[in-house]
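Design review, sub-item: ligand-bound model
Attendees: FS, YL, KQ
YL presented the inputs for the zinc ion complex:
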Amino acid sequence: MRTNWALLLAAISPLALAAAAPPPTFSAERLSAVDKTLSSDAFEGRGPATPAEQKTVAYIIQQMQAAGLAPGGAIVGGKRQWTQEVPLLRSEIVGQPQLAMTIGGTAMPLTQGSEIAVRAPLDGAKQVDLAKAPLVFVGYGVTAPERQWNDFKGVDLHGKIAVVLVNDPDFETGEGAFGGKAMTYYGRWTYKYEEAARQGAAGVLIVHETAPAAYGWATVKNSNTNPQFDIVRADPKAAHAPLEAWIQRDLAVKLFQAAGLDFDAEKRAAQRQDFKPVPLKATLDAHYAADVGVIRSHNILGRVAGTTHPDETLLYTAHWDHLGIGAPDARGDRIYNGAIDNGTGISALIELGRAFAHAPKPDRSVVFMAVTAEEKGLLGSEYYAANPVYPLGRTVADINMDALSVSGAAHDFTISGSAKLGLLDDLVAAGKPLGLAFTPDPDPAAGHFYRSDHFSFAKRGVPAVSVESGRDLVEGGKARGNALAQTYVRDHYHQPSDEWHADWNWQGVTQTLTLVYDVGQKLVTSREWPNWSADSEFRAARTTSAGDRP
Ligand SMILES: [Zn+2]
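KQ shared the predicted structure:
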């Protein structure tokens, strides 16, 4: 057979080689090994600014370096560092808080973590003393002028405790001004706390119910009874009421009964625009001291510099922190290892960095940021977004990875929460040749769009999503995928049992990596600036920051 040398030479010309650069291989062994190390007891659950932070940061820098990344953090003394320092307010309740309710004239002591979960104060106070503070039910605690909605109706909450429901007013009916089942930001517990502070309340009690909260009491207890953090604020009292807490539904039912009210009937009333605040026949006594100070944690940034447009940055993020050491579970385990949440995301971030570091140099820069304090309220990403190392107007997009699936390959992928943006269209297009269909968040009511680090970027206009594999598993389909997801949320999410297992199947993670790598390669070799859909609440901020571009 005769060889056509001209054709063969054309096929192996540098241009053809570049175009046909082999797809990266993502190693399940390396992914598993990094996760195993990060989630081992030696890393003590990776609490920010604990002794474990130093160990965690050193390990991630070492891994980024070994993957071929350059330092991508702040410039200190003319030298680019691996990290960005993140100052945080830290507050911890000293001893057992003294808590009691007087319900219909009868005093009843409350046990921290049992009927109530009070978090350490973040308004800067070192002592909280509330005596006989009256309770007022304020429905969903929402002020949304653009939706003609105000649950407060002018009630004066000074010196009083607001009792609020979690999620937004149309969660249960599935139809209304708040996106139906999907959660708006008004449904988030962070919003409930912020709005109570704006209303001048002395405190806020969020009524826990598993369906609208989307997680059980164990999660509430574990996330609120450990040290609390915030970014350092000029006026912390504007952002936080003196007392911030959750209560169990059973206690709320008692409160309403004492006032001659039915909890479910009052909840239905709160789902209407004409709802009015209801004074309850109960008061709260709360006395506790707090140890308050400023601690310094760190975001970790590795970078591949762009060739032609190095000042334009594609960002990949994953949070390195977890809950640290806390209350013991039934087995007496106190270390919250966070193997899935978010050892998976960090091992994936490093593996992705390795792929970009070994690919042909990109036109635009790519930054891989392991952020701190996600579990404390998205604080590392919030700090970065408020103090960006690379201007947000010239940040192409943020693709975040948080708690990836170790249940094996899937036929689909998803993003956390629902949003409309060009970046998602890019992901959908990149998924097709990989055999990955897009499935919208199966549980938009859980408000996942507001629960991971991409949100710190989204609210400032940067197109941002958290990507994960779908539940339609190659082995076992949707039935097995849904069952495994439910088991994780019930038995392991934010619990000491979120531990590494040797038999995990990392194929779902390598699929996700291939997807976000392909989209990233497209973005860093194009002049495209992804944007939000025309009706998105985030588009205006993107338009404003576009002025930063050359
Ligand atoms: Zn997470």
